[in-house]
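INPUT
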Amino acid sequence: MVIYGVALLAACYLLGVFLGEALGVLIGVDANVGGVGIAMLALIVISNMTSVQLKLGDATASGINFWNAMYIPIVIAMAAKQNVIGAVSSGWMALFAGIAAVVASFMLVPLLSRLGRGGSR
Amino acid sequence: MLEIVESVAAGNALIVAFVFVGLILALSNWLSKTFTRGHIHGSAIAITLGLLLAYVGGIFSGGSRGLADVGFFTGVGVLGGAMFRDFAIVATAYGAELETLKRAGWVGALSVVVGVIVSFAMGAIVAVGFGYLDPIAITTIGAGAATYIVGPVTGTALGASSDVVALSVAAGLTKSILVMVGTPLVARRIGLDNPHAALIYGGLMGTTSGVAAGLAATDPKLVPYGAMTATFYTGVGCLLGPSILYFIVAGLL
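OUTPUT
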């Protein structure tokens, strides 16, 4: 059943968000620490368990895959609700700070990628 | 007539958003095929269009939520809100390889910490360059350059003034928008074409919305890997900002 997939996804999501909040409280931070990441891990682990894999029928999987496919439309909606004016109109310092952070971070991607592969490539 | 249309739209805001996003994507895919022969991804065009419409919507309404503040389009705010975004991000993990995650485990964690420190340092340097000398203000602006959530959290913890907090939010917004638009443009140059690089990219950038949109426009297959590490960034930033990073700034001045 499609709802089984949606319900499994939702359960993983809630579990992750809850643990993320709890982790935040635990280390004394006013933010959700990795909630979505934990939820993703939960979903990956559960869907990779062979006993569950056998039970996850096509219909169940389509309940998850629907939301997977809705990801890009949701991101477009997200783009359309950003405070673009707020970013553009608050002066050069904020713009420069944001730009500098992005450029430096982009430049580090190839460096760290190589590190992770042990410099073999 | 118009009143009926308005009341139907108001009562069914989320459904209106489905049609709206569908039309934007249809237009973007057509633009992509006709004018760029598919070289620029349809979703990259759609995200850029979304940002442009957010700008127009902001002018129109004077609000801070882009198009979502314009009566007819309030559903865009629901569909594009954090709940649906995070729910869909989790769904992308279905089918991701556990092995890739395991192999990149420690570099992924390292990339988050390095990402926070680098963005913070750049923001702090710019703040100093613009004449800020107060360690609290410098730390808050640096934290904002990490993400627009880390900025206010740090600023509030340190007792920064509200105009400095606003600047830190603006720095974070600039970063997030730039990551959305810039990622597909630089992807090849920075080697962002495999799950391993996506994990590190997500950890370094850290802005969940920026990474989400940037990878969607580059290669949707990479989304789960980048999103996974990015979701730890804000938490780590909120942890380091008002503590270690502030002490370092205060010590240097």
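end of record. Chain B touches chain A through 120 residues (CB under 8 Å).
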